[in-house]
Amino acid sequence: MAEETVLNFVPILYMLGFGLVAAIPALVISRLISPRRRFNPVKFLPMECGQMPSGEGRSHFMMQYYSYILMFVVFDVMAIFLYAWGASLFSLPRAATLPMMAFLGIMFAAMGYALFLSGRKGIW
Amino acid sequence: MASYPQEFRFGNFIASIIWLVFWVLLIVTLVALPLIFIILFYVPLPLANGEVLTPYLFLSMVVDPTRTLPILQFFMQTDLFKIAVFPGFTYAALIAAVTIFVERKFLAKMQLRIGPLYAGKIEGIFQLLADGLKLVSKEIIVPSGADKPIFWAAPIAFVATAAAVTALIPVAPGWVVADLDVGIVAVFAILGFFPLIALLFSWASNSKYPFIGGLRALHQLIAFEIPFILSALSAVLLAGTLNLSGIAEAQQPYWFVLFLPISAFVFYISSLAEVERVPFDLPEAESEIVAGWLTETSGMIYGLIQLGTYIKLYALSAIFVVLFLGGWSGPQIFPQELGPPGEKTPLEQMLTLEGIYNPGTANAIFWFTLKTFGVIMLMLLPRGISPRIRIDILLHTGWYKLIVLSFINIFIALALVYGGVFGPEGILTSG
């Protein structure tokens, strides 16, 4: 378990590279054999169900459910931290589970409070 | 109506083909052959069956049935074979292709339709080939004002990232491209890229519907990433390792789904959300926002994104099998050797794959593929029977219900470990 090095991760990069090698020729071949008719500018307009598009394509947009996003940042990290504990559970003494439960308790009290507060103030 | 151009002549057609052949031959002679010789000069040649494998020997061994097997054996050990063919890309893409066809037939039967019928004599089995040809030969339309480099790169990145996930999946003992000690965490790390690619693509295509779809992909990540991670944690608790092969080996007699049914359910639901399938296909809700983040895709760009999606579906089903359904374990059904026992002629040796055939591995691959396909069918099922759910209900389900459900099963797993059922001296621990 101690010999995990960067080199163990290299096959994933090879696999990624093989995905690139497989996908790029598909686009190149498609570009070579497909027709290219560029005389009608209307067909390059962004799709808006047949209407002429109005306004910018990239506009300001209300990012809803903002409080979930804030909570996600915290709890995603917490979930990954639990893996460090879960993988070494067999070699830990049993008393070591108690602080872990306290940690979970604190996290879930905070989460419940955040969900309650954002629900009451209606800031979704 | 298709019509030939005005100046079409059969002679011109033949001449263009001859020109093409001429150019190919010219490039092969002037570039490819010297390149091969330069590479062969510098690269140390491998040993196969005790001999140095020169190109001449390679060719003579390939045509001689008595000497082909060692060379096959040699190539099956290389990394390139693993990456390109067996646990890697070709296997995943093949399963993805079969899934696309099976999905269409399966959904059609469920809704009392017939499904693809005309391409190919039997039940439309060449439908996929026809679709592929159609996608390759269609024009790719890049909308005006789009960010062109990202628009072209995002589908490629999507396929490559999906392929990178399959690198971590152990198909049989020892048959895995990257056997990491932190395998399951690496899976989560790579899966996190997909909503980002969706968001990048939707932002690059300079259109409103893709933009809304991309943001929905982000919300889906927020709703389902945490239950997804937490439901896999209980399997890690029982196995005591993060290595995916280790988790599969730890459930040799009893599959984890017997002890962790709630986790398996939560993992299944979150995987549906991860691959953006009905009822969680909000990013490409075709009845609300045209096609979501795929609105501006056309031709092969759409084809690549579909391929990536189905490879991802295979990867998530395979991880479900590894975590909860015992990986490759199953009753031994393959015989010790293929063919009748006794002395064999060289041709028979080649036909029965002597030296390559390993009953344990064949069995493992068979059961793994069977289970994975079962889980894939289970993931296809909701598309025929379920409507799409609203986005606030999605977030509510993820945060209020699934997290709590996955924690219930984490505590059950803890009780199993501390009650002496699993763990170093557990009664159900294998080996």
Which secondary structure elements does this structure contain, and how are they paired or packed?
The complex is a heterodimer of chains A (124) and B (431).
Chain A: H1 10-33, H2 66-87, H3 97-121
Chain B: H1 10-42, E1 47-48, E2 51-52, H2 55-63, H3 65-77, H4 79-84, H5 89-110, H6 127-136, H7 148-166, H8 183-191, H9 193-204, H10 208-239, H11 244-250, H12 261-274, H13 300-324, H14 346-351, H15 359-385, H16 391-418
Antiparallel strand pairs in B: 1-2
H/E element order of chain B? HEEHHHHHHHHHHHHHHH
Q: Determine the mean pLDDT of chain B.
A: 84
Relevant CATH superfamily of chain A? NADH:ubiquinone/plastoquinone oxidoreductase, chain 3
Note the gap between the termini of chain B.
Answer: 70 Å
CATH C-level name of chain A: Mainly Alpha
Give me some keywords for this one:
heterodimer; A: 124 residues; mainly alpha; Methane Monooxygenase Hydroxylase, Chain G, domain 1; 3 helices; B: 431 residues; 63% helix; 1% strand
Structure description:
The complex is a heterodimer of chains A (124) and B (431). Chain A is an all-alpha fold and 124 residues long. Chain A has one domain (6-49, 61-121): Methane Monooxygenase Hydroxylase, Chain G, domain 1. Chain A has helices spanning 10-33, 66-87, 97-121. Chain B is built from 16 helices and two strands. Chain B has helices spanning 10-42, 55-63, 65-77, 79-84, 89-110, 127-136, 148-166, 183-191, 193-204, 208-239, 244-250, 261-274, 300-324, 346-351, 359-385, 391-418, and strands at 47-48, 51-52. A two-stranded antiparallel ribbon of chain B has the order 1-2. In chain B, helix 2 packs across helix 3, helix 5 runs parallel beside helix 15 (359-385) and helix 10 (208-239) packs antiparallel against helix 12. The radius of gyration of chain B is 25 Å and the shape is globular. Chains A and B meet through helix 1, helix 2 and helix 3 of A and helix 4, helix 7, helix 8, helix 10 and helix 13 of B.
